[in-house]
Amino acid sequence: MNLRHVGFLIVACATSLGLANHVQSDDIVSIDPGSYAAIAYSPKTTKIGVGYNFSSRAAAEKEALKECSADDARIVTWVNEGFCALALGDDKSVWGVGWSYGNGASTREAKAFALEECNKRTKNGEIWAVVCSSDAVKPFIKK
């Protein structure tokens, strides 16, 4: 397999995501290059839905909207061969999203971008969801 077509991740922040039971901090995870993920969010209810390990963006988005199950649910981010994240702060009507994809994709980068964007719009941003496009890493959704 050509390494240019396989995404790798050094999961340095697995513990901070609550993923320690799934991967170890020094594990390298292979992300299927044909995989897609999406996150849906409802500003009215703060419900979150995710779709991951799909072979198309449309299928991942459809699953995320179904999982969110709110009338005002909308797709806020998606990714192919990587990670996407959603951050919320004090004002739940606004949010920030981030993503990281391809070789070297990382949850750290996706989360950092999401927090940066969120904190431009509201205060006290925190990560509410992180999802991998494949099933290499289980999704994190704040309860």
Q: What's the layout of helices and strands?
A:
Elements: E1 7-10, E2 28-31, E3 36-41, E4 48-54, H1 57-68, E5 74-80, E6 82-88, E7 96-101, H2 107-121, E8 126-132, E9 140-141
Antiparallel strand pairs: 1-2, 3-4, 3-5, 6-7, 6-8, 8-9
Number of domains: 1
Overall structural class, as computed from helix and strand content, comes to alpha+beta
Order of helices and strands: EEEEHEEEHEE
Describe the sheet with the most strands: 4 strands, antiparallel
Alpha carbon gyration radius: 14 Å
Q: Tally the helices.
A: 2
**How far apart are the termini?**
38 Å
Strands, total number? 9
Provide structural commentary.
19% of the residues lie in helices and 35% in strands. By secondary structure, it is an alpha+beta fold. It has one domain (3-141). The longest helix is centred in the last third of the chain and has 15 residues, at 107-121.
Task: Supply the key terms.
single chain, 143 residues, four-stranded antiparallel beta sheet, disordered N terminus
Provide a concise account of the structure shown.
The N and C termini lie far apart (38 Å). The protein is globular. The protein has one domain (3-141).
